[in-house]
Structure formats: structure tokens, C-alpha cells
């Protein structure tokens, strides 16, 4: 019997980052080092359930009486709690009811629904600094948006080339959209300064382009408040904006798929209209978000003691990543690498990007058992006192 529908399909290669994890698991070398996949890890390579999450979860399971559907906007109180967490008490846009959020399946769900809302609003494309997180392109393209790259990070200088980036940004007009990383840039760890963010919003005000902010590492950079600068300024200065929010890293809820899409409207009525489109797009996609992660986040954020415990654990995770950055740079200096890796302590979040080629990352992996993505991105959580010398030794061998 002929198979007219599926017969022409060709095998799709697995996602490069997920493929790297599989290769790491299959590697039998005992001293292999995983700097690949982007999750928080302790020095003994665990990604534990946060205690505040476990406590909230136990309380929820004990008191659970139903598994009935959530409404399309998500768990009760979730959206308000995320808005409050990101914008802080007393933000003028919150006072004017210009902010509203729906719960989404992770940050990816938020990016996808946001991209669809942009397409429904007439956007044909979205601009993003290069390099960016590998999944941005597929998520935006799936909604029909063309992804246009702007120069952003200079790999040789290990720093943002802000003049080049602004050259592109200043040419954007009112039908354009700029996708920005809210904090802890993935894959480079190179964040815009507040003054640079101000300059981008000056351009957005004068040129009229829209911004879509992806916030996947809130609290991993400097603090919950400092990491929210871009979102807060966007809501204060721009007539409208979209923000994708992920609870995967800062609540350690990866597999539960908890995130939010936040609408910044020009007034309360406009925010309501944006949300009505977001829920209708969700309905035509996954209908409503999964409950478990959203209920946990909502419980933690509404309970003073759970919230304080969670914040404490988040501060601890951030401190650990910063400590790993310092350890790597100090060891590199001690092992005669001079200031070559100093840029790593100027960067923030889980990632930095080594100035190496794809071919060099292959040598790191094959010869030294050091796994990183093909663009040289390393997860700082994978660095610890037992492996840091091996990482620097490999670097000296491969890249110096
Ligand atoms: N945006 C960026 C930059 C990310 O790194 C990630 C996850 O790695 C996400 C969004 C989405 O995360 P998730 O869908 O797992 O919540």
C-alpha cells in the first residue's frame, strides 16, 4: 500500500544540546567533564529539588482534591505573583494595571505564544543579537517570523560589541521587533549594562519598534531586583511590550514546564486585550498549561516563609555559580594563562563562551573528555575544585 502522507519525511537530527548530553552519558571515561547542558548542578553533579519546592509540593499533594483543568491563564494567583516578583512592589505600570500574565508551559511556551501574538499583530520578522540561545530561532520561526541576526557579541574580544549592535538597533522601524535577553545572556553570559539598556529603549522610543524580552535566569545574575532592570524599564518607558518568563532555573522546575508570558499594555484595557489574545492562542495550541509547576510557584510566592526559603536557596545557587567563575579564573592565572580567561568573572548567569572554534570543541571532547556546545558555551555549574585544573589543562592544550 502506498504511503502518500509521510513517505517523503527525512530524518531530523536531534537537538545539538540534547545530543551532547546523550554523548556525555555514553562516554565511559571516568574523568569526563560536563560543561554542556544548561541546568544548575552541585559540585557532585546533582540538580536537586529545591527545599522550598519540595515543601510546597508536599502541602499541595496533601491537600489536593481535584485534577480538573486549570483555566487558560493558569494556576490561581500565578500570573499576579510573577508580575509582582519581576516588577516589584509599587511599579507604576502595576499601579496602572498595565501588566498581566498568563502561565505557560515553561519559558518556551511563553516564547512561542508571544511570537504568535507578534505574528497576529502584523510582525513578519524579529531581530536578535548573535549569537543567541539555539532554540530562539525554531520557536520564532514556528510562529512564522523570520529571524534576522544583528551583530552583538565579539567572540575574539569576549565582549559585547555595543556600537555594532546599536548600529543595527537604530535602523529598526515601527514594524520591527527586537528580542532581548532580560539577564544572564545565553550563550555568552555577556549582559548589557543598565546604561546600554537605556540607550536601546531611547531608540525604541524614537523609532517605535517593539521589544520582546526573554527572562529565563531571573535571580541568577546579581539579584532578583538588579536582574529585573530591563523588564522594569521597558514597562516604565515603552507603551507596550512582551516578556517571556521561565521558572525552570530559578525554581529548579525544569520538567514541570512552568513559565509565564507577561503583557505590558498601554493601559489596563489594552493589557486585557493582549491577554485575551494570549489565552486564545494558547487554546489553539496546548489549550491550558500543566498545573503542577504553576501551583508550586504560586504557593511559594504567596507564602512568606516558603518565599523567604526559596529566595535564600536561589541566592545560594547564584553564589555557587559566581564562585565557580572565580575559581576558574584564579586557576587559569595560577596555571600561567595570564588574564586570558578574566572575562569570565565579568559575565553573569550560568554561561560563558570560550573563544574557540567548533573544531576545537571537538578536540576538547574527544581528547580531553570536556563537553561543551559547538559554539564554545560552557556551563559554569560544571566547574568545581576537582576538575578545574583538568579544564585549564585542556584549554591550554587546545586553545593556546
Ligand atoms: N530562554 C532561554 C535563553 C533559555 O536558556 C531557556 C532554557 O534553557 C528558555 C528560554 C526556556 O526555558 P524553559 O522552556 O525550559 O522554561
Short recap of the structure:
This protein has 400 residues and is an alpha/beta fold. It has helices spanning 16-26, 51-63, 78-87, 92-95, 106-120, 136-142, 162-169, 194-207, 229-237, 268-283, 291-302, 304-334, 343-346, 358-368, 388-399, and strands spanning 33-34, 99-104, 125-130, 146-151, 153-154, 159-160, 177-181, 210-215, 241-246, 259-264, 351-353, 370-371, 377-379.
Question: Main traits of this protein?
Answer:
2 domains, seven-stranded mixed β-sheet, alpha/beta, binds pyridoxal-5'-phosphate, Aspartate Aminotransferase, domain 2, 15 helices, Aspartate Aminotransferase, domain 1, two-stranded parallel ribbon, 400 residues, 13 strands, globular
What does this structure look like?
With 400 residues, the chain is of the alpha/beta class. The protein has 2 domains: 16-49 and 307-399, Aspartate Aminotransferase, domain 1, CATH 3.90.1150.10; 52-303, Aspartate Aminotransferase, domain 2, CATH 3.40.640. 44% of the residues lie in helices and 14% in strands. It has helices spanning 16-26, 51-63, 78-87, 92-95, 106-120, 136-142, 162-169, 194-207, 229-237, 268-283, 291-302, 304-334, 343-346, 358-368, 388-399, and strands spanning 33-34, 99-104, 125-130, 146-151, 153-154, 159-160, 177-181, 210-215, 241-246, 259-264, 351-353, 370-371, 377-379. A 7-stranded mixed β-sheet has the order 2-10-9-8-7-3-4, sandwiched between helices. Strands 1-12 form a two-stranded parallel sheet. Helix 2 packs across helix 11 and helix 11 crosses helix 12 (304-334). The longest helix is centred in the last third of the chain and has 31 residues, at 304-334. The protein is globular and about 60 Å long. The model has no long low-confidence stretch (mean pLDDT 96). Bound molecules: pyridoxal-5'-phosphate. Pyridoxal-5'-phosphate binds next to helix 5.
Amino acid at each position: 500500500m502506498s504511503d502518500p502522507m509521510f513517505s517523503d519525511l527525512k530524518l531530523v537530527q536531534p537537538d545539538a544540546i540534547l545530543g551532547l548530553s546523550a554523548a556525555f552519558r555514553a562516554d565511559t571515561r571516568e574523568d569526563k567533564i560536563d560543561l554542556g547542558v544548561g541546568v544548575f548542578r552541585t559540585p557532585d553533579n546533582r540538580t536537586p529539588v529545591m527545599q522550598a519546592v519540595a515543601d510546597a509540593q508536599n502541602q499541595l499533594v496533601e491537600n489536593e482534591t481535584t485534577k480538573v483543568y486549570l483555566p487558560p491563564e493558569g494556576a490561581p494567583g500565578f500570573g499576579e505573583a510573577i508580575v509582582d516578583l519581576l516588577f516589584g512592589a509599587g511599579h507604576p505600570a502595576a499601579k496602572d494595571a498595565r501588566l498581566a500574565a498568563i502561565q505557560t508551559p515553561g519559558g518556551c511556551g511563553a516564547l512561542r505564544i508571544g511570537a504568535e501574538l507578534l505574528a497576529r499583530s502584523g510582525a513578519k520578522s524579529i531581530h536578535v543579537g548573535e549569537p543567541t540561545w539555539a532554540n530562539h530561532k525554531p520557536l520564532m520561526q514556528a510562529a512564522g517570523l523570520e529571524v534576522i541576526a544583528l551583530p552583538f557579541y565579539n567572540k575574539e574580544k569576549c565582549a559585547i560589541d555595543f556600537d555594532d549592535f546599536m548600529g543595527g538597533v537604530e535602523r529598526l522601524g515601527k514594524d520591527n521587533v527586537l528580542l532581548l535577553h532580560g539577564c544572564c545572556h545565553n550563550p555568552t553570559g555577556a549582559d548589557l549594562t543598565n546604561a546600554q539598556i537605556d540607550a536601546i529603549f531611547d531608540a525604541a522610543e524614537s523609532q517605535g519598534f517593539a521589544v520582546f524580552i526573554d527572562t529565563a535566569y531571573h535571580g541568577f545574575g546579581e539579584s532578583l531586583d538588579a536582574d529585573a532592570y530591563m523588564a522594569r524599564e521597558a514597562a516604565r518607558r515603552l507603551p507596550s511590550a512582551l516578556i517571556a518568563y521561565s521558572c525552570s532555573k530559578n525554581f529548579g522546575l525544569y520538567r514541570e514546564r512552568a513559565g509565564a508570558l507577561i503583557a505590558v499594555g498601554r493601559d489596563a484595557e489594552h493589557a486585557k486585550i493582549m491577554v485575551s489574545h494570549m489565552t486564545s492562542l494558547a487554546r489553539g495550541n496546548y489549550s491550558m498549561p500543566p498545573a503542577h509547576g504553576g501551583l508550586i510557584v504560586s504557593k511559594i510566592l504567596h507564602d512568606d516563609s516558603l518565599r523567604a526559603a526559596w529566595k535564600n536557596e536561589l541566592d545560594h545557587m547564584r553564589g555557587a555559580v559566581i564562585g565557580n567563575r572565580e575559581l576558574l579564573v584564579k586557576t587559569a592565572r595560577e596555571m600561567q594563562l595570564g588574564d586570558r580567561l578574566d572575562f569570565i568573572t565579568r559575565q553573569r548567569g550560568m554561561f560563558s563562551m570560550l573563544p574557540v572554534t567548533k573544531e576545537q570543541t571537538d578536540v576538547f571532547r574527544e581528547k580531553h573528555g570536556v563537553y561543551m556546545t559547538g559554539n564554545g558555551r560552557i556551563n559554569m555549574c560544571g566547574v568545581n575544585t576537582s576538575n578545574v585544573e583538568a579544564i585549564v589543562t585542556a584549554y591550554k592544550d587546545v586553545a593556546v
